[in-house]
Amino acid sequence: MYEIRVDEEKCCAYGNCVVAAPDVFALGETDKVIVLQPEFPSVPPHVYRAVRSCPAYALTVGRAEATEER
Ligand code: SF4
Predict the structure, then answer these.
(1) Ligand 1 center to residue 65 CA distance, Å?
(2) CB 35 within 8 A of CB 4
(3) Keyword annotations for this protein (predicted)?
(4) Nearest alpha carbon, ligand 1 atom 6
(5) What is the structure's pLDDT at 70?
(6) What is the pTM of this model?
(7) Residue 69's pLDDT band (cuts 50, 70, 90)
(8) Domain definitions of the chain by residue range
(9) For 2-63, CATH number?
(10) Long-range Cβ pairs for the range 59-66 (8 Å, 24+)
(11) What local confidence, expressed as pLDDT, does residue 68 receive?
(12) pLDDT tens digits along 26-56
C-alpha cells in the first residue's frame, strides 16, 4: 500500500495538486490541502504528477511503512 503525506508547515495553498488530482486533493477553509484519498494499492500517474507539481515540496508519496521523498 502507498500513502500520501502532507507537510502542512510547507503547504502554501498554491492548489497545483488540486488541479492535477481533484479526486485526491482539496483545499479547505484553513488554506491547507486536504487529502481526500490518502492510500492507494498503486499510485495513479495523475497523483504522482500532483505530488511533483507542488512548488512548496509539501507532498510525499511512498510505501505506507516508509514514505519516500518525491
Ligand atoms: S500544491 Fe503543494 S502547496 Fe499547493 S495546495 Fe498542494 S500541497 Fe499545498
Answers:
(1) 23
(2) yes
(3) Electron transport, Iron, Iron-sulfur, Metal-binding, Transport
(4) 17
(5) 62
(6) 0.87
(7) low
(8) 2-63
(9) 3.30.70.20
(10) 59/4, 59/5, 59/6, 59/7, 59/17, 59/33, 60/4, 60/5, 60/7, 61/2, 61/3, 61/4, 61/5, 62/2, 62/3, 63/1, 63/2, 63/3, 64/1, 64/2, 64/3, 64/39
(11) 57
(12) 998 888 999 999 999 999 999 999 999 999 9
Atom nearest to 50 CA in ligand 1: 1
How far is the centre of ligand 1, averaged over its atoms, from the C-alpha of 35 (Å)? 11
C-alpha cell at 15: 492548489
CA 39 from centre of chain: 10
Closest CA to 56 of 31, 28, 30: 31
Strand partners, 42: none
Helices and strands: H and E segment counts in the chain: 2, 5
Q: Please, what is the average pLDDT of the chain?
A: 92
For residues 46 and 48, give the distance between their C-alpha atoms in angstroms, rounded to a whole number.
Answer: 5
